[in-house]
Design goal:
single chain; five-stranded mixed beta sheet; alpha/beta; Collagenase (Catalytic Domain); globular; about 180 residues
Length: about 180
Amino acid sequence: MKKFILAVITFILITVTSSIAAGQKRYKEFPVTVYIESSTHKPVIKQAFSSWTNMTRVAKFKYTNSPEEANIIVKFAEQPSVNKGESYVAGTNMNLPSNDGYIHNSIITIKSKKQKKNIKMYDSQIYIVALHEIGHALGLQHSNNPADVMYYVSGSQRMLTIGDLNAFKTLYADKTN
């Protein structure tokens, strides 16, 4: 009986893992080439990419000065503040899959409005939003766990969690063995 239950649980886990990986798009191989628009925030964005490399040990990136050569393009846009005098940062990501089922290009847009008195907090917000949007660029979906970087509402998560890493490992299982 125990073997049967174990076999059923194993089958369910494999089926769920396979369906998650099959339904999501991802990059075929690393390193992925990144272009970051000219900005004073370029070091903060590079730091977010480095966090994905350091934590996953699989996601690797190389940088280019040409958007035409890039798989991931990071752009900046000004976003009006919700409340006057408040700093504001948001992000979007658009993955462009091709016919072979892999992501070939992603466009991350960091939308922000900086107020002079909140410069330190502002860089921190850009980092957190970039970390989240890079996850989407890699193919990860939103998490239901508020502690995760990939939670659907950006919070104060500055490091990838076990949940984020497990989602990455599921999507890139053939690269993490």
